[in-house]
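Notes from the 1:1 (GR / supervisor)

We went over the backlog. Supervisor wanted to see one worked example end to end before approving the batch request, so GR pasted a single chain during the call. The sequence is below; no edits were made to it. Supervisor asked that the structure be written out right there so they could see what the output format looks like.
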Amino acid sequence: MADNRLVDGTIAALGIGRIGAGVLTWISPRLTARVFGMAADDGQSHYAWRLFGVRDVVIGIGTLQSSGPLRRAFITAGLACDVGDGAAGAIALSRGDFQRSSAGAPVTVPVLAVVLGAWVLRGLGR
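Structure output shown during the call:
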């Protein structure tokens, strides 16, 4: 089992990272789209980015403010979202919606979050 301090630090990093990403996405969907290698010049894409943003803020706050089984539930919800985000990025990449040179963030960021989230859940035990 992983060192509890390392697990706790990783949980905090995941929660803070989610909140930061969510706030940035809500405030500046255009900048977020550029970071992810996408064009975001219309209101519809801004709306979609803000949906992602509020989801990440809620999961991040829930992760940081909870404990025990509820914390595990928030981490699991975040992991499920990350798996879905990574799958969406992979589908978009395979369809040619992204060029390989700009697909790093939409695929790599969720994969990293999945690895960390799964490791944390393992470290928390069953």
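Supervisor's comment: The two ends are 11 Å apart (CA to CA).
Batch request approved.
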